[in-house]
Automatic annotation (TrEMBL):
Pfam families: ECH_2. Its EC number is 3.1.2.4. It catalyses: 3-hydroxy-2-methylpropanoyl-CoA + H2O = 3-hydroxy-2-methylpropanoate + CoA + H(+). Keywords: Hydrolase. It comes from the Bacteria. It comes from Kitasatospora misakiensis. This is 3-hydroxyisobutyryl-CoA hydrolase. Residues 13-333 form the Enoyl-CoA hydratase/isomerase domain. It is an enzyme of class 3 (hydrolase). NCBIfam families: PRK05617.1.
């Protein structure tokens, strides 16, 4: 194991701690491989009854992948990032079918790749500090790590809204949208985690869980469902502008800041994911899309603007929705040159 993932067995509990607190526990390729190795080792170990994933530090579980590394690698062909994504997506799928209870503590910031290692688990816990998001369109990318499946299965058009705008979810929103199962106050987490060695996991969690907090998105369903049911990003924007709802106006402003290409690809990916019969199918699609994004101008430019230079002024190309045609979008769903990802 490397020094960025702490793994130990504590009685019948296998504990995995993502340990890059200064980087908000963002994932490197080595961390992905270390988590996978631990899960593989424990899957057949009868002494391990339950696995728990947490993040080091006070700020969050995981802020996602190491996107600065993606930026640098994409500029030289993206081979390293493609390898990272293959292993990451396979890990996401393994978590979804892990043979033992997999408890993910989504305390604090849980975004992008952090969602991938938590929201596919069998026991997903949020706290009052949780901020959950798939913010990929902010950086010229498309929701991945199985996010297209999660978003496509959220109530109504909430997932479409979240995926396009890259908006964050409150703890209540995460529960409403199917990204989490239980709400536990952060102050009670140490007790809960200590008690997992013994009684059935469901009994322990029930002892500490409290009623779900309010979900702000629930109050926005009417305009979100009406506007985002449209078949194109252009029509979604037109409906948002015409709705007269202040929150809808804010959404148009957020969409105007996103990559026009990635908005259209994201909408297509989410619509296609609705027909998928498994997480594996969505991850295989996401691999195609992510590989195409690595070769597109907007990913490097988006990360530059948000993370490298931090000027928050990306120069998208093409710059408008009208310039992104159906053929351009369809190309993102073609097999990558180095072959598809196959899971299972």
């Amino acid at each position: 194991m490397g020094d960025e993932v702490r793994v130990r067995r504590d009685g019948g509990v296998g504990r995995i701690v993502l340990d890059r607190p200064r980087a908000l526990n963002s994932l490197t390729h080595g961390m992905i491989l270390d988590v996978r190795a631990a899960l593989d080792a424990w899957a057949g170990d009868d002494a391990v009854r339950v696995v728990v994933l947490t993040g080091a530090g006070e700020r969050g579980l995981c802020a996602g992948g190491d996107i600065r590394a993606f930026h640098d690698d994409a500029k030289t062909g993206g081979a390293g990032t493609r390898a990272f994504l293959r292993d990451e997506y396979r890990l996401n799928e393994l978590i979804s079918r892990y043979p033992k209870p997999y408890v993910a503590v989504m305390d604090g910031i849980t975004m992008g790749g952090g969602v991938g290692v938590s929201a596919h688990g069998s026991v997903r816990i949020v706290t009052e500090r949780s901020v959950v998001a798939l913010p990929e369109t902010r950086i010229g990318l498309v929701p991945d790590v199985g996010g297209s499946r999660l978003l496509s299965r959220a109530p109504g058009e909430l997932g479409t809204h979240l995926g396009l705008t890259a908006s964050s979810m409150t703890p209540g929103d995460a529960l409403l949208c199917g990204f989490a199962d239980h709400f536990v106050p952060s102050a009670r987490l140490p007790e809960l985690l200590a008690d997992l060695d013994g009684p059935p996991v469901a009994e322990v969690v029930a002892r500490y869980a409290e009623p779900a907090p309010a979900a702000p998105l629930a109050e926005q369903r009417e305009w979100i469902d009406a506007c985002y049911a449209a078949d194109s990003v252009e029509e979604i924007v037109a409906r948002l502008r015409a709705s007269g709802v202040p929150e809808a106006k804010q959404a148009t402003e957020e969409l105007a800041e996103r990559s026009p290409t990635m908005l259209k690809v994201t909408l297509s990916a989410l619509r296609r994911a609705r027909a998928h019969g498994s997480l594996a199918q969505s991850l295989e699609q996401e691999y195609r899309v992510s590989c195409a994004a690595l070769a597109h101008h907007d990913l490097v430019e988006g990360i530059r603007a948000q993370v490298v230079d931090k000027d928050r002024d990306p120069r998208w190309s093409p710059a408008t929705l009208a310039e992104v045609d159906e053929r351009t979008v369809a190309a993102f769903f073609e097999p990558p040159a180095d072959g598809d990802l196959r899971i299972g």
